[in-house]
Design brief:
By secondary structure, this protein is an alpha/beta fold. It contains 21 helices and 22 strands.
């Protein structure tokens, strides 16, 4: 009788009770193991490896136990998967569709021991799809219920958790004033009323030696004790909680906690802050909300490998079409217009790619789940709701989404082969309506492959893991170089080769240098993996050493 190798997968959404000696994961495992024992006559055999995921949601496939299970399935080590209920495996119909493809490829099926069906049969698959649809529906309804509960509670002025603002302490579903932190908040407001300038407030706060409070997180990590940042001060000055109010997204409701700042004083400060912000704008276009939008939103945020800033530059084609570029500052100030290390990048394409990279980063399950330090269940629901709007692909909101991406970008560092983006924790905190100290700084930096290829006057940007592009022109010129070199070895002169090939003698002399490229360099060109900027024109203009080790070193610096 053929043995059917069975693996058991267990999952629990929350961490509650996992510390117990016998927890929910153990109960699921024993139920599945008993079912396997009952099928012993059919050749079912339980594998010793356990695949457990404790405290992880079924809405994502980014689970260590599940990934190990799928890896073992791919290598043909498992014939049957057993779960206590189908929603233990996944709550997403889309994820299940991807999973079924892998199961089919490995000739593996799975069984739910409390829901009688088997994916080896067509009826079992139909039943499974129906159950998954309801599981996904239940998950979405639960999220909506949580959001509605939070909204209703905030309308009543209740405090619904999250990090307690500096100056307050939690008091059930309300807040109470906490001394001496409350004195720090009043000092910051008094300084702004005195100077009407956040820069001066920041300098004065630093001179007074005021620091952010020291907090020990659940993970044991200690945060705080550092000077207030500009973003943190702005967050304090614009947080309606200090006026005795509760904010829910764009709406503000009267709170049930005592104010630290008189509401009329807080309102006057908001008017002043909006007035100061309007004075500083030098933009040229208006968005649909009436606020002005920058024609080059990444201005002042992009820097090349030398630390030089890329500035906006405008030009026109022969037909009068306006072109926008981001250009290394040294190329436009007149001192080094021909510096080969300078960058000139098409603005619209670069902005589009940057927005895509930022959205892709925030859409990763580990980033969206960990962007806040020690989030509560309610906060996780709020973050997911915000991200669903932020990452929307709706054409009507596309420009707003891109503008949001540019707002949270703090710095973009370019170097050959890589683009590194640093996100602003302060800006992200404003979007999420949380204290800036709650943002997980470890997730604010992202790197992406970056290439730019010249094709005549056009520059093609390749950002992210895009398919390799083979440079057919460079490949043809390398082939010609080897043919010319073979003719030289046979005794032909450059003049004779030029006459045979129908090209100039100078062209033969230029191209024959390509015959001395290292084999691995040629292989990279053939596969589209050549270093950034290594084109036929670049190789002809630069003297390339015939020594392979020196070539590899030179190309690595491109």
């Amino acid at each position: 009788m053929k043995k059917i190798r069975c693996a058991i997968y267990t999952r629990k959404s929350s961490e509650d009770g996992l510390e117990q000696e016998f927890n929910s994961l153990d109960a699921q495992y024993e139920a599945c193991a008993a079912y396997i024992t009952s099928q012993k006559a059919e050749g079912w055999v339980l594998l010793p490896e356990r695949y457990d995921d404790g405290g992880l949601s079924g809405g994502s496939m980014e689970r260590p136990g599940l990934q190990r299970l799928l890896a073992d399935i791919d290598r043909g080590a498992i014939d049957q998967i057993l779960v206590y209920k189908i929603d233990r495996l996944t709550r997403s119909l889309a994820d299940f569709a991807k999973m079924v493809e892998r199961l089919d490829a490995a000739a593996t099926s799975f069984v739910s021991v409390t829901q009688s069906f088997n994916t080896a049969t067509s009826m079992g698959r139909l039943t499974l799809n129906m159950l998954l649809s309801f599981a996904q529906f239940e998950r979405e309804v639960t999220a909506e219920r949580i959001r509605d509960k939070i909204a209703a509670s905030k309308r009543k002025g209740l405090w619904m958790g999250a990090t307690v603002p500096l100056g307050y302490a939690a008091d059930g579903r309300s807040l109470k004033i906490a001394v001496p932190d409350a004195d720090v908040i009043r000092t910051i407001y008094d300084l702004y009323l005195q100077h009407r300038n956040t820069r001066v407030v920041k300098e004065t706060v630093d001179a007074l030696g005021l620091k952010t409070p020291v907090r020990t997180l659940i993970s044991g990590r200690v945060k705080g004790g550092s000077p207030f940042s500009y973003g943190h001060i702005h967050y304090i000055l614009t947080n309606p909680v200090y006026a005795g109010r509760i904010r829910h997204h764009t709406k503000v409701y009267p709170g049930q906690h005592p104010p630290l700042i008189a509401p009329e004083v807080w309102d006057s400060i908001q008017d002043q802050l909006r007035s100061d912000a309007a004075k500083g704008r030098t933009f040229t276009k208006r968005n649909r909300n009436g606020a002005r939008a920058s024609a080059s939103p990444l201005t002042g945020k992009i820097f090349d490998q030398t630390g030089d800033r890329l500035t906006p530059s405008h030009s026109k084609t022969a037909k009068g079409r306006k072109l926008r570029n981001y250009v290394s500052h040294r190329l436009v100030r007149g001192s080094a217009p021909r510096d080969p290390s300078g960058w000139r990048l098409p603005a619209s394409e670069l902005e589009e790619k940057v927005a895509d990279v930022v959205r892709g980063h925030l859409n990763k399950p580990d980033v969206s789940a960990g962007i806040l330090v020690d989030p509560t269940t309610d906060e996780t629901a709020i973050i997911n709701e915000w991200l669903s709007r932020f990452l929307s692909t709706d054409k009507d909101t596309a420009q707003d989404v891109k503008r949001n991406c540019f707002d949270i970008v703090e710095r973009i560092a370019l170097k050959p082969g890589e683009m590194r983006i640093a996100l602003s924790g302060d800006q992200l905190a404003r979007f999420l309506e949380v204290d800036a100290t709650r943002i997980n700084e470890d997730l604010l930096t992202l790197a992406s492959p970056f290439q730019h290829r010249k094709r005549g006057v056009e520059t093609k940007l390749i950002i992210g893991d895009e398919p390799a592009t083979i440079d057919a022109t460079l490949l043809r010129n390398i082939a010609r170089a080897h043919r010319y070199f073979d003719l030289v070895r046979s005794g032909r002169t450059f003049a004779e080769i030029a006459e045979i090939e129908g090209v100039s003698k100078r062209r033969v002399q230029q191209l024959i240098e390509l015959a001395f490229l290292a084999p691995d360099v040629i292989r990279a060109v053939r596969e589209g993996r050549q270093p950034v900027g290594m084109t036929a024109d670049w190789l002809i203009r630069h003297a390339v050493s015939p020594i392979w080790a020196e070539q590899r070193k030179a190309f690595a610096a491109l």
